[in-house]
Amino acid sequence: MADELPESAPPGIDPTTPTFARVYDYFLGGKDNFAADREVADMVMQLVPEAPVVARGNRVAIERAVTYMARDLGIDQFVDIGSGLPTASNVHQFARTANPDARVVYVDNDPIVLAHGRALLTETGVATFIQGDLYEPEKFFRDPALTRLLDLSRPVGVVLAAIMHHVPDERDPAGVVRALRPFLASGSHVMLTHLHDSGDDPRVEEAKRILQSGLGGSYFRHSSDVERFMEGLTILEPGVAHVTQWRPDGPVGPLEHPLHTQMVAVMGRKD
């Protein structure tokens, strides 16, 4: 269970309130998390000890999607929205392995993510980290730090990994994705991953309750709902698929696991 000793945090950070970014970091074996985050993660893992494989499967999908866009589609500029805390491998590393000219702008609104991202991921002419809110795309797409690095008159690869399942129905998730399109040139691609309501593991129902109460909103949705979020984009094969089954000829991921059905991936193109 979580540590009981009090923890210090940078100014503006509340270490007693868990966040998904830090719970996700803990699942991936990171150290940028607090006792409150570990408590939520440990409660989930008491029910579903294999829960971290969902986080690892999500990283596989991101790597495959970014590699596909950079290597096969020739996209050399990316925006990672709701990027979360830096991990061992990040979008600009995936992209530049496939295309050495690739550039990436990371966007997040979590203060601790911003602090770590700016310290660890900023690389002049290659990657930068800016503050932005998913619900206000007009602000971050017009941020001078973004427009200095990226040319929005050319195709962009947008990454929405493990963020849309925090958007409640009343905030219109499809509308949130749709609001990004005016800022994207034709030929741009949008990929997203989302928690999936597969209905095939009874333990997941209690895990959902813990995430809902501990993180203030994590919504498991059916693949048909996720597909609707891509309205107005041309969905690429194989459509909405479990994360490790999305373009399995891409970079090798972890061994197949039943819990990989709890996260799906999809990519769409703006024509």
Automatic annotation (TrEMBL):
Q: What does the record give under GO molecular function?
A: methyltransferase activity
| GO BP annotations, alphabetical order | methylation
- What Pfam families does the entry give? Methyltransf_19
Does the record carry Methyltransferase as a key word? yes
Domain of life of the organism encoding this protein: Bacteria
Going by the UniProt record, its keywords in alphabetical order are: Methyltransferase, Transferase
User: What name appears for this protein in its UniProt entry?
Assistant: SAM-dependent methyltransferase
Q: What is the organism of origin for this protein?
A: Actinomadura darangshiensis
Taxonomic classification, please? Bacteria, Bacillati, Actinomycetota, Actinomycetes, Streptosporangiales
